Structures are given as structure tokens and as C-alpha cells.
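**User:** Hello, beginner here. Are you able to go through the protein record under this note? It all follows right here:
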Amino acid sequence: MINNFDKRKKKMKSQFNQYSALKIGSLLLTAMMFSWLPSGALAQAAPETAAKTAANTAAKTGIEMHGKGHYAPSKFGKIYYETEGSGPPVFLIAGGPGSSHASFHPWFSRLAAEHTVVYLDNIGRGRSDRLPAQRSSEYTVERDAEDIEALRTALGYDRISVIGHSYGGMPALAYALKYPQHVSRLVLSDTLLNAQSWQENIDSANFTARNQFPEIWEKLMQMRARGVKSGAPEYGDLYGETELDIYWRDPDMESKLYRSDDPADGSNSNVYLSFIGDDPEWQVGGTMKGYDPSPRMKNLTVPTLVFVGRYDRVGTPKIAGEIKAALPAASSKLVVFERSGHRPWVEESDAYFKLLKDFFPTEDESATPKLSKQ
């Protein structure tokens, strides 16, 4: 299911236009639940041009530099990106699929004092190039991962840390699986694992809509009886009225998201439908159908944090537990934010960024870090 920000904006003045941002067990969150021993080779410094870019943006906040970024080439088209701060690089991969990076601002500026924060729009989203309509079947998780590699290469980094939020965790994981030699750290934040967990996400959201908004659910079922699928705009407009509670522990936190009236920040519904199919709030189709990286995850040795909000009803704690179970125990850790929904970086900001700062390297290291046995 998607996060219908465009639909809710009319009613709730939601912060940034999104037709689709993914809806996306467990341990008690404490700052002492794990420790990282100093070891592990880190991302090398970027070449001179990337270093200058980072220096020029170091004093700016994410909001100030938003929309004033650069373009990197790839075989799929130009990739738009912004850099903020200086130090070892951290790439941010946005949700959807179909959304720009806009909602990361200004929250992830908190990393910029010690890291070069790299915001990117995958091909088909934000300010990046689109694929021709006849190539829509090329919108896949694996292709999105290639955007990360193209930008890493363009900026000249040897190794990068990657944070994938919501749908963005899927290409972030796919990238680490294909290019582990270039990944220093991996964070999978309130994300999904495969086509099966995406269907669980859809079913979970529909359960909430059916039980908490029965009057709206009845109208939706009348639409379906007339042959209207959930990818239709009129279905999405109505369905969006049921969605706010599934993303937040406290729905009032929605007002803290970055507001943008720039059309470039709106989500691309064509990308979303290419991934999930023409009935995306009912059944997984599109290029996501059958997708499952889990058999390959047991050999991933990249240090990985799996984050989830206890009250996230889309990227649920159950799904987060399945992701953790598919990863090697020695190189992964599950963290549950007990007072958050889908965006713990908003609802429990201090705890979220404290964990990231403890996790990410801030200088060159000589060996691979290890998780504590805690």
C-alpha cells in the first residue's frame, strides 16, 4: 500500500506531495543495546570534485540546499542528487516506490556534522530522468540498486553507508547483496522484504481501513463491485482518508514533515503502478510480483541495522523480524522504537540519530566492525 500524501494534502495539508510512498520481532530500544568495536575499513574520501561539493554544502541545512543539487550520469538517464556536510558518505534511499527524497529534509541534516549525506532521486522520481513509457517494465528493485552504484561511481567513493527507508530499504538491500565490497554499513528502516511481505503490508492496511473506517470501506467495496481497481485515482482519493493512523503512533506528527509545493517533489504514480500493478492496494503485481532476495541474505556480512516502529502498521515489526531472521546473526541487529510508527526518525529523533551516529564510522578504520552479542 502507498502513503497517499497527495490525497490527504487536500484535507490535512500534508507536508509533501506523494501519491505513493510505501506503507511500509523485537527488542526494547535502548542506546546500550549494542556496541560496535572499532574496526572495519571505511569509505574512502571522495575525489576532489566531490569533496568540493561537500565543502560547499557543509554549512547549509537540507532545506536550504534542497532543489539546488547536481546530476550524475547513468545508463538509464541523469540521476539527481544533493550532498550535505563532510566526512564518510551516507546515501539515503527514499520510499514509494515513486517518491523523491524530499521528506528526508531537514531531519538527516543531523548527520552532516560528521558525514557527507547524499540525497538521491532514483530514476523516474523527483528531479531525475524518467524511463520512456514503453520501458516501464524496467522499473525494478534491482534497477533502482544500479542507481546507487552509478552515483557512487560518479562521486568517486570506494565504500558508502546506505540507509533505505520504507520501499527504499529494498533497493538498499539489493545493492548490498550485489556490491558488498562497496558497502560499509546498511540500515533497513521500516521496510519490507519481498513480494510476500508487501502483500502482508497491503492486507494489514486494508484490515485497518475495514475495521476503523467501515463507512469508507463500504464505499470502496462499492467501487470494486463496479470494477474500479485500487490504482484508479478516485479509489486512491477515498482510500487516502483511512491511511494517516497506520503511519504514525501520533498522527499529529504528520505536520512535522517537510512541506513542498514544488511539483518536482510529487510522487510518480506511474512508477508505483509499474512496480505493484494496476490493483496495488489489493494484490501485488507488476515487477514486484515474485520478488524475494531472502535466499541470498544469509551470506551478507555487511553490518546491518534493521529499524522498525512498534506502531508501524505497514512495515510491521513482524516483517522486520523476518528481515532480521534472514540475515546472519553476527552481522545484524534488530531495533524496535517503542513510541514510533513508520518514521521513527521523526517520532523518536534523538534515539534514532544517536543509534545511527554510534553505528556509522566517522573516520578511517582498519578492520570490519562487529556487533555485540547483547
